[in-house]
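Our preliminary data section would be incomplete without showing what the modeling component actually yields. Below, a chain of 449 amino acids is followed by its predicted structure, encoded as tokens that our downstream tools consume directly.
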Amino acid sequence: MTRRYFGTDGIRGTVGEPPITADFMLKLGWATGQVLRRELGQARVLIGKDTRISGYMFESALEAGLSAAGVDVALLGPMPTPGIAYLTRTFRADAGIVISASHNAFADNGIKFFSAEGVKLDDAVEERIEAMLDQPLTTVAPDALGKARRVDDAAGRYIEFCKSTVPNRVHLHGLHMVVDCAHGATYHIAPNVFRELGAEVSLIGANPDGLNINHDVGSTQPAALRAAVIREGADLGVAFDGDGDRVLLVDADGREVDGDDILYMIARDRHTRGELVGGVVGTLMSNFGLAAALEQMGVPFERAKVGDRYVIERMAANDWQLGGESSGHIVCGHVQTTGDGIVSALQVLSIMAREGKTLGQLLSGLEKAPQALVNVRLPAGADAKALMDEPALKDAVAALEAELGDQGRVLLRPSGTEPLIRVMVEGRPHLDVQGLARRLADDVEHMLS
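Predicted structure:
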């Protein structure tokens, strides 16, 4: 079935432009409720959101649609995406709905679903929801309408869960950290988690106003975190994206520690202690140095397509427990079902506390190849797939690959969450990977003009 709305990470777009409209969300809630009730007879759904101003509108629309279909709703309020996954499981709900556009600016929003098991909804279920959207909206009898209630202790429940993912003996006393919440869904969660474990916490990006989510802060804009860590003389910094499912660290000198680095530290620690089950799943974007370091340790490594959905699929197929992306989506399957920025940060902090080492010391043994990423924004109406199929673009990629030979690699792909073409070049230290990536990006821009 051809998907009209669902992408690799739910439905996402600009608020007010179809399908990110109030009337569509009303119909989406109803269609979801219809599918769940037909399969289960009765159903209950959790709804959480990040801090975008449009979240209030879409929360109300989804609630109304679900109620019209006879489905009960529990409203969690602002909550990190992985927190919604966790609470969907613990509440024994039939599905969880996240209202968020992750790392995008406030003008965008989106919807993604979790199953009762706290994992992304199966493609087959999403396809049934899309099919139901074509049916006329009907309302159940008045005495069968779904009921709605607010969950007042959602934040506290998730805070306790996050702390439970590290051993009771682990504490963060004496550790000074800067925490950047991207003015997003972790603003009232992450600071409490780290402080309750004993850390001294300085905050940035923790004053959401509905419009400032991800604006010059967060894991995709790390300059503010680097500056704050150096200014405060902190031991490290932690930055989340708007919905809290990805994380980036910086060390005491302001050097970035990305998802590949985090995967290496967690894998090395769990492997050394005999707790790593199987190997590690990365993506096509994962640095060659990560694969080489894991191979040196005797840890299997496999690349999935870009997207946490595909990472989790490969983890499940291999029965492995650790995977992630260089962007900071890290899935610690021994404690969580999905990418979780707070939980991933805690795994690293736990290692630091137990071994008494800095981030730099923990990264000893990982030699990453230089890698450059350039994003090319697509103009309105541009067809990313048609562009990728252009013979001239394929020729440009082939020419660069031939130029690199066995000294590097090229990856060109459309973003699954934004109107972008991502150009990545990775190579040996003597290569100007930034210049090569910029050259290929210029070719893409020329074909769009």
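The first strand starts at residue 11 and ends at 14. The chain has 15 helices and 18 strands. Preliminary results of this kind motivate Aim 1 of the renewal.
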